[in-house]
Design a protein that fits this description.
Helix content of chain A: over 70%
Shape of chain B: globular
Oligomer: heterodimer
Helix content of chain B: 25-40%
Strand content of chain A: under 5%
Largest sheet of chain A: none
Strand order of the largest sheet of chain B: 15-14-25-26-27-12-13-37
Low-confidence stretches of chain B: none
Number of helices of chain A: 4
Strand content of chain B: 15-25%
Structural class of chain B: alpha/beta
Chain lengths: ~70, ~950
Amino acid sequence: MDAHKLIKMANQIADYFDAYPEEEAVSGINNHITSFWEPRMIDDIKAIAGSDGGSDLHPLANKAVMQMVA
Amino acid sequence: MKYTPEIDLGTPKIEGGDQVTLTIDGKQVSVPEGTTVMRAANVCGTSIPKLCATDSIEPFGSCRMCLVEIDGMRGTPSSCTTPVTDGMVVNTQSDRLATLRRGIMELYISDHPLDCLTCAANGNCELQDTAGEVGLRDVRYGYKGENHLDAEKDTSNPYFTFDPAKCIVCSRCVRACEEVQGTYALTIDGKGFNSKVSAGTADNDFLSSDCVSCGACVQACPTATLSEKSIITEGQPTKLVETTCAYCGVGCSFRAELQGEKLIRMVPSKAGGANEGHSCVKGRFAWGYATHADRIMKPMIREKTSDPWQEVSWDEAINYAAERFKAIQAKHGKTSIGGITSSRCTNEEVYAVQKMVRAAFGNNNVDTCARVCHSPTGYGLGQTFGTSAGTQDFKSVEEADVIMVIGANPTDAHPVFASRMKKRLRAGAALIVIDPRRIDLVKSAHISASHHLQMRPGTNVAVLNALAYTIITEGLESVDYIAERCDDAAYKRWRDFIQTPENAPEALAETCGVPAETLRAAARLYAGAGNGAIYYGLGVTEHSQGSSAVMAMANLAMLTGNVGREGVGINPLRGQNNVQGSCDMGSFPHELPGYRHVSIDSVRELFEGDWGTSIMPTPGLRIPNMFDAAVDGTFKGLFVQGEDIAQSDPDIQHVSAALSAMDCIIVQDLFLNETAQFAHVFLPGTSFLEKDGTFTNAERRINRVRPVRAPMQGMDEWQTLCAFSNAMGYPMAWDSAADIMDEIARLTPSFTGVSFKRLDDEGSLQWPCNEKNPNGTRTMHVDGFVRGKGQFMLTRFVPTDERSTRKYPLILTTGRILSQYNVGAQTRRTENNIWHGEDLLEIHPHDAELRGVRDGDLISLASRKGDTVLRAVVSDRMPQGVVYTTFHHPTTGANVVTTENSDWATNCPEYKVTAVEVRLSNAQTSWQEERDGRAESVTHILQAGE
């Protein structure tokens, strides 16, 4: 799927959870994406996080997605 | 059932109060204190002649027909204005009363046409009935005196006529317009013999007056003065079916009045819990689309979208569709197809679609049009309160002391509820409006908002945070309520967050465009209310922070103790008639019916056991994700039930690209809509007049939808879905729509107590309706929140990425108006076009002058996504820098301009903020020309055998 859109979506989620303490924010982002995103979107964002595109991700979003990869 | 007129008890019902016992014509009756003698008499089965009284409006006492004798009281008081007292003895019949009544009737008839046999009201005329009741036999004054019989008839309104020759000046129409509708369009002009009903315009015509065609005056008229044109043309109804309106989320109950299967008129039902006898122009009059010539009655298929449509049998269409979908899945995988449910369809039809997708398609790629309207409501209220629904019923507004309307325009989009709200406002409740546009509620007849926070589009969360900051820092919060009802840790954290200086009104005033003192004053008013009620619409949800704004409102309500009783709450005004229901029925790709996540094993097992198939444990694609996946080449087939995504969804050119990229699109609809231009299979649908099922309105009220006639295209929609599911390889069958509801009740905890039989017996039920709440639930969260403790959520303001620029310096916001409905598929095929035949762009005089734009000019409206051409209306309803239009007409295609931006939590599109530029223009855009070409070609239909 369009990497630019997925990055924007993940970053918006991170922008919301940014108000929370980091651990809770990362967990919240992870939970949100897992709860609402379809697997092919999750696969794509995982691929983005693991590539150069990861630098475009909000640090909290990147951390949350990398946790999914692990 | 056989037609019978609604019972009219003469004066309104009095709620509560001590019981008073009196004697009427020797019969004892007990009624609440404050009830009139007329109503008490009617309650005990004694009819008193009347003309100016009717139970939808306050008594007036002008016709003097309802005179009675009361022991110990001098003279003959009018029963409609005399309240009962304990021990009162009333006599409704005597020679003296008969003589008086006959004398009054004689005067009325001396100036009334004697054309009863050819009159439209013949058989349903209170004047005629009352003349019969009082035994009038002759008119001593003759008929040659001065009279009004030559008064000119006004036929300007497309749906009803006003014939002053038949008017008895009882003022029922004027009072209905004031008390029931709250528009004050009518008045009595002149004095004495010259008194006449006036619409207050130079030509005294209804069409150019302030009249909103709600029909309240027509309903109240006791003669043929105000008559539906359909009654004049067709005659009086003989048959009756109680059903539910198919327009907005108010969900008004109607009496469909018929001759055989032919609908003669729709009259709002007094027993309707949502509307209590009131209606708007759409539900009351705009039902002609159901039999419009454009309606498609036969299934059609085509190999390619460039081919003409070929009419085929139902079997052929369904097998063809199934083969194409199966071929797609064989080539591209199980998740390469999906479906979209419609909030214009019944709960039973929506349930059938999501079951078909999950069981027959084998995936969770099902979404609903709520995605593009109220999905943030589901998320926001789910997080804070624990369930995705408004907290109140509509009647609750009668107990509100302060009403806050945010991002909603009830007088246009939810007019019947707006009338209730206006009644409460006229009675003294205070009003706060938060909206960039000066909606009618801000200042209208006898209503004036205490505060209009005319904020910049996209700053709802900033405004709500500033209100919360004020309440906290000024010590206006409801400490005891919070301690008892809300999660303590979450509250303390939120409290720390909201008190940070960035949330202060002074810090946010410039961002919002609202002075800090106005923000503070509004906060004080809301927090100081005994009962503070919030009503909101898509101006809250359709933003990049839509879900945050919903949570911010929930925070405010918890903070002030305004959840869990009458007169308060958080109330989403749902856009379409069954938005609530389509969400309840499991239309979202991550939830099964009853808002239970697909990943929960026990939930899946429940459905798997009942359906005899496995369900995927991961969420499916949401509508915008479907489009992206289609463009990406991994999503190839879509079933679209009753929605027109090619007109309603944002960034139309992206939607078109997605639809064009798919291998097979199946559209089930009444008309060849914009989406059908991209379709390969067309399955004709049923109108609400043919549906058997239920709609659930914004107050969680489940109402019955009953067919007035058999499906005109030969098949119920749920039967079509069963056939399609069977052809796809999953056997799906029910004997009736009632069976579907039984299955819903069996599998959905909040619907356990719901059945067609109970709905037929009790009228309606508000969910949750189950063992714990056997009679349904008027008010949510009374003894505690559904989730347990209320959860304060942090709502940091994050500005949208969509900003005005030098190239696009204005902000466009979109909405809808009274006479049209959403994409207009229904209302554009009615006489409602007389009020709104095209989409118009409202632009502030300053912005217009800068661009040389005058009223009526053709202008180009352009954003970074696309452009369209429409006419301008110069209006100071918009603040400078903001323009507004509607999306009712496909030829305009307002959504060719809107963007891909969406809510962070739900992907609900950001319809309300688009950076645009406006310029004078003199021609259609290339997109419009292309669209018109497609629209022309889609109507090319080959009949069977051609």
